[in-house]
């Protein structure tokens, strides 16, 4: 719920389409989908995980949406024997080989921001020819980590980070922090935040002396028409990094046709296809390990299910050929940068072949 709801709803749609493709059944039994709202916060993740961990009807999970939710709840899920596959968590440390036992039940089909931050730095330095950059984060695990990866990579390329600032996720007046950033005179400003902060920053940035024409960019946390609603006219010309939809090796076009038929409009954010792939990895693992009794009763050994998910190799998904590492990375880290070419939220349609908005500009 709240300003980041499009991220969760976008992924939920991907899961629903995967269920449709299975005819709503697996091993002769109905697939029943339930959801919890974790609110994109560690506290929300902890609360949702506590509820899910006590639900004995659950065999597998898709989520969470935000990295903060996973930080708050993954220990509870892992210790309950459950395994979850996130379509949209991108914080690098979540799949670090040294992440610890609490993460034994965690995998993801999303990329790591170790790749996304590097891609944005290369875009800024090599494509835009920027040499002085500033960053802003909103205190979330996602934003803090991503802006730091960008900063480190930008410096490696020869650039200079002239300011690294932060605001609270509930902040609305961005003029003070933007004034501080303006004083540092960046030629590229990167704020990989979530929707509320992204909207306020974008709406106010051109009113701050020194930032009237600076190149501005965000990432997949604000890759949604909701940013256009909050940021208004200033979103036009803004850059957003995201998974590279054109690099998906599966039938993404077919997925979009199903999405349009089912929901009657454009995709909401960036990770619908990753959620579809996550659901299908879960279904395939279930079919491998489920124990079917003579009377049709099915038992799902949770440890065996976890092992089957992590053993996924060369799985043909929409986003590509997926293989899971020992630390849970299953996705293909292919990143692109898109430009918002129309600030009207009604024009949002990145999957359009004729008039995409945002439009891919890099690589």
DSSP, total strands: 16
Low-confidence stretches: none
Helix content, binned percent: 25-40%
Distance between the termini: 33 Å
Name the shape in a single word.
Answer: globular
Number of helices: 11
Specify the biggest β-sheet.
7 strands, mixed
Compute the average pLDDT: 97
Strand order of the largest sheet: 7-6-8-9-10-15-16
H and E string: HEEHEHEEHEHEHEHEHEHHEEHEEEE
Structural class: alpha/beta
Strand content: 5-15%
Could you please describe the fold and organization of this structure?
This protein is α/β, with parallel strands linked by helices and 363 residues long. The chain has eleven helices and 16 strands. Helix 4 packs across helix 5. The two termini are 33 Å apart. The mean pLDDT is 97.
Lay out the secondary structure.
Blueprint (H helix, E strand, L loop, with lengths): L4 H17 L3 E2 L2 E2 L11 H12 L7 E2 L4 H13 L4 E3 L19 E3 L4 H15 L4 E6 L3 H17 L2 E7 L8 H9 L4 E3 L4 H10 L10 E4 L6 H7 L7 E5 L8 H12 L8 H18 L1 E2 L5 E2 L2 H9 L4 E2 L4 E2 L12 E5 L19 E4 L1
Parallel strand pairs: 3-4, 4-5, 6-7, 6-8, 8-9, 9-10
Antiparallel strand pairs: 1-2, 10-15, 11-12, 13-14, 15-16
Helix pairs in contact: 1-10, 2-3, 4-5, 7-8, 10-11
């Amino acid at each position: 719920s709240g300003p980041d709801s499009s991220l969760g709803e976008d992924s939920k749609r991907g899961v629903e389409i995967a269920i449709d493709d299975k005819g709503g059944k697996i091993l002769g039994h109905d697939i029943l989908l339930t959801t919890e709202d974790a609110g994109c916060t560690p506290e929300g993740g902890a609360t949702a995980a506590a509820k899910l961990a006590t639900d004995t009807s659950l065999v597998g999970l898709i989520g969470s949406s935000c990295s903060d939710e996973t930080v708050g709840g993954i220990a509870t899920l892992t210790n309950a024997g459950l395994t979850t596959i996130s379509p949209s968590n991108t914080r690098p440390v979540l799949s670090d080989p040294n992440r610890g036992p609490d993460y034994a039940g965690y995998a993801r089909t999303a990329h790591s921001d170790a790749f996304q931050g590097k891609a944005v730095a290369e875009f800024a330095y090599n494509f835009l020819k920027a040499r002085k950059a500033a960053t802003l984060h909103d205190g979330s695990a996602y934003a803090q980590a991503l802006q730091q990866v960008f900063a480190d990579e930008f410096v490696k390329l020869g650039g200079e980070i002239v300011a690294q600032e932060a605001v609270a996720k509930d902040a609305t007046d961005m003029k003070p922090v933007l004034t501080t950033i303006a004083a540092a005179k960046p030629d590229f400003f990167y704020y990989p935040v979530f929707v509320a902060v992204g909207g306020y920053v974008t709406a106010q940035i051109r009113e701050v002396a020194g930032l009237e024409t600076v190149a501005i960019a965000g990432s997949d946390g604000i890759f949604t028409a909701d940013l256009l609603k909050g940021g208004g006219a200033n979103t036009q010309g803004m850059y957003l990094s995201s998974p590279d939809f054109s690099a998906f090796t599966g039938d993404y076009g077919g997925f979009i046709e199903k999405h349009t038929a089912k929901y009657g409009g454009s995709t909401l954010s960036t990770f619908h296809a990753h959620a579809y792939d996550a659901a299908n990895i879960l279904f395939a693992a279930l079919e491998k390990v489920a124990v079917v009794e003579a009377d049709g009763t099915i038992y799902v050994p949770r440890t065996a299910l976890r092992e089957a998910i992590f053993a996924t190799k060369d799985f043909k998904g929409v986003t590509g050929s997926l293989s899971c590492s020992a630390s849970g990375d299953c996705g293909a880290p292919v990143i692109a940068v898109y430009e918002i070419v129309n600030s009207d939220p009604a024009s949002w349609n990145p999957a359009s072949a004729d008039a995409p908005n945002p439009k891919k500009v890099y690589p």
